[in-house]
Structure formats: structure tokens, C-alpha cells
Amino acid sequence: MLPNSHYSSDTPAPLPDAASEPATTAHRPPIRRPSVAFMLSHPVHWISLGFGSGLSPIMPGTMGTLFGWLSFYVLTLRWPEIFTPVVWTAIIVAGFVVGIWLCDKTGQALGVPDHGAIVWDEIISIWLVMLFVMPASFKTQLVAFLIFRAFDMIKPPPIRQFERRFKNGFGVMGDDLIAAFFTLLVLALWRTM
Fold first, then answer.
1. What's the rounded Cα separation, in Å, for the pair 186 and 152?
2. CA 10 → CA 13, 16, 72, 87, distances in Å?
3. What is d(CA 179, CA 159) in angstroms, rounded to the nearest whole number?
4. CA-to-CA dists, residue 191 to 133, 134, 171, 186, angstroms
5. pLDDT (0 to 100) of residue 164
6. What number of CA atoms fall less than 13 Å from residue 143's CA on the CB side?
7. What is the pTM of this model?
8. pLDDT tens across 19-51, in order?
9. C-beta of residue 115 within 8 angstroms of C-beta of residue 60
10. End-to-end Cα spacing for the chain
11. How far is CA 1 from the centre of its chain?
């Protein structure tokens, strides 16, 4: 604060008007509500929105996770000679790395870094959970699904802190990866009891 200023620390300084703002102010695209047309406008959005599962008007994160669980189950059951644990590991690692870029691009296009419709992070993370859980009964798979959703929605520490610190594709992908880790930890403790 300038010594001769008549504003005290309790009095806010006047806000600059639009004409006096510097020309370097970044323009943010408006927040968009994704549609089928938006999703199909670019392959990046198609993948980020979970092949349409993220367009669900009700709990898109849960729908994306459900899509991930079912796709893991069906692909592994239908083509077990192709979708082996080694292949799934490679898919998950590649999906995480590429997902950072995918989710960042779609978040920019929607005007929100971690828009609720972006569910690629949930898909990759539930694939990781299922990789360690399978083979398992339907009950165990369902418990893994529910635990993962609980961690992803509640976001206990350090998940919430991670999400707040990283506001880009890495943050979008990373917080769900931590939720997957906690899910696997809980399942491991559950199995030892």
C-alpha cells in the first residue's frame, strides 16, 4: 500500500474498469455443457467423455466408472488371450499418459479443467482397480466399484489437496489414480480380515 493512499487495509481498492485492464488478460472460453455433437466434433472429446458415458445427466462420473468396469469385464471375458494382465497394464499406463493431454484439451474446450462429463480418468482408474481385483466374484467387483466411487466423490486427503493443486489434465487424471490406490489398499485390508 502507498503511504499517501487514503485506503486502509480494511477498505478494498476500487476495481479497475474494463478499459483500464491490461490487454494481456487471458480470454477464457465460456463453460459449455457437452452434447453428442460436441463429443463427436473431435476424437479427443469422444475419448475424454468416455465414449458417451460422461454425457449422462445423472452422475456422469459413476456412469463413466460403470462403463470402465463393464468394458474391462467384457473385453477380458471375450478375448482373454488378448486382454491379459500385461496388455491391460500397458493400456492403463498409455491411457493415463495420453489421458493427461486428452482431458486437458477437453477441459479447455468446455471452459472447466475438470468438467463432470470428463470421465476418462474414472475409466483408467477403475481399469487399474479391476486389474488387481480380477479374477473375482461379482460381489468383490461391486465392492471395489463402490469403494472407488466413494473415494472419488468424497475426495479425502490427500485426494482433494492434489485436485486443488493441479488444475490441468495431470490433476484430472492424478486424483482418480490416488482414489484407485486407496481403493486397492482398502480391498487388501478387507481380504486380510
1. 14
2. 9, 18, 57, 60
3. 7
4. 11, 13, 30, 9
5. 79
6. 14
7. 0.81
8. 444 444 455 555 667 999 999 999 999 999 999
9. no
10. 61
11. 41
